Amino acid sequence: MRVAASEYLKVLERAEDASVGREAWLEFAAELGSLSARLRDGLNDANKGLGIASAREAILLYLLRHVGEPVPADHLAGVSGIAEWARRVRELRVEFGWPVESGVTRDDLPYDHYRLTADEPDEDLADRWRVAKEARNLKKPGGKDAAGRARLLHYLKAISPRPADKEQLAYVAKIQEWPRRLRELEEEGWQIVSNVDDPTLPPGSYRLPTLEKRPPRVREAIKLRYKILDRDRGTCQDCGRTPAQGASLQIHHVLPVHKGGKNEEENLITLCIQCHGGRHALMGGAPKDELLNPEYEADLRDV
Predict the structure, then answer these.
(1) pLDDT digits (tens, 9 = 90+) for 211-233
(2) Torsion of Cα atoms, 225 then 231 then 237 then 240, to 10°
(3) What sign does the CA torsion over 101, 103, 109, 110 have?
(4) Does residue 235 have a pLDDT over 90?
(5) What is the 3-state secondary structure (H, E, C) of 241-294?
(6) Mapping DSSP to helix (H, G, I), strand (E, B) and coil, where does residue 210 land?
């Protein structure tokens, strides 16, 4: 393995010569490919010599040495000694319940980094993946595949009130537009909660806290809520906090509806739950998002 590594570096040094043309570079690239295969074989032999039975075991042992730390993908490729190392990481999550996060499952991790969050398998995670496989194969009464929206709802209901990460949701939906389907379900009255509503959820995760539906919402009201959140950059307009800082965001009418306020952009503002409560200091109880809960403003008349 040392010989292959040494030869690899020598070829790279020769390839870095500015005078190297396209044809010569292709020959260098072919030689590097052959040396890379020899290096992988050497890594596999070294793993076996140390009693590491498989690439998956090597990856797990390395992640366990770095629990809670972001690990670059090339480190995992190196310790595995195989080209298909990413599949082995997925097997650790899906088949065995090891809580391995990545840029696919977390919006706050670089796309090419992974992180093991605990030193024991998560039985709940393994169960959610089992349910995800069932939901992915959901059929209509006639035997045809169910629509992506139906599969998503089936999955969220089956694991409620537990959360689903975006990798699981994309897997269940089998379509790239799955976030849009979640919005459609919300418009129908399903109370789908995200990191914006519940900052304890990892970014990119969603859950269905209850199987009870709200009265169906008007599509424009849901769109308007997202528009206000986007306009205010997902930030409380009073204290400046975001979900990443532990803030749960809600929409507030500057001029209350019962005093003539309208669902117009200039009359709507994003507030965290604490600042929203401050705006309604005499209301009692926890404040609610006023676009998602139109009855909440009406209840304030008697306060």
Answers:
(1) 988 776 666 777 888 889 999 99
(2) 110
(3) positive
(4) yes
(5) CCHHHCCCEEEEECCCHHHCCCCCHHHEEEEEHHHHHHHCCCCCCCCCCCCCCH
(6) coil
Cα–Cα dist 55/78, whole Å: 10
Neighbour-count burial for 186-206, b at 16+ CB within 10 Å, e otherwise: bbbebbbbbbbbbbebbbbbb
pLDDT per position as a tens digit, 171-220: 999 998 999 899 889 888 898 998 888 888 887 889 999 998 877 666 67
CA 133 to each of CA 58, 126, 139, 173: distance values in angstroms, whole numbers, following the listed order: 26, 11, 12, 11
In the block, which residue shows the tokens 């975001």? Answer: 242
Question: CB under 8 Å to 190, separation ≥6 — which residues?
Answer: 153, 156, 208, 213, 214
What's 183-205 look like in SS3?
A: HHHHHCCCCCEECCCCCCCCCCC
Q: Give the residue ranges of DSSP H helices in 105-162.
A: 123-136, 148-159
CATH fold for domain 219-302: DNA Binding (I), subunit A (1.10.30)
CA distance 218 to 227: 15
Token duo for residue 16: 């870095």
pLDDT at 298: 47
Whole-structure pTM value: 0.66
The pLDDT tens digits of the residues spanning 104-117 come to 777 778 889 999 99
Architecture of domain 123-207: Orthogonal Bundle (1.10)
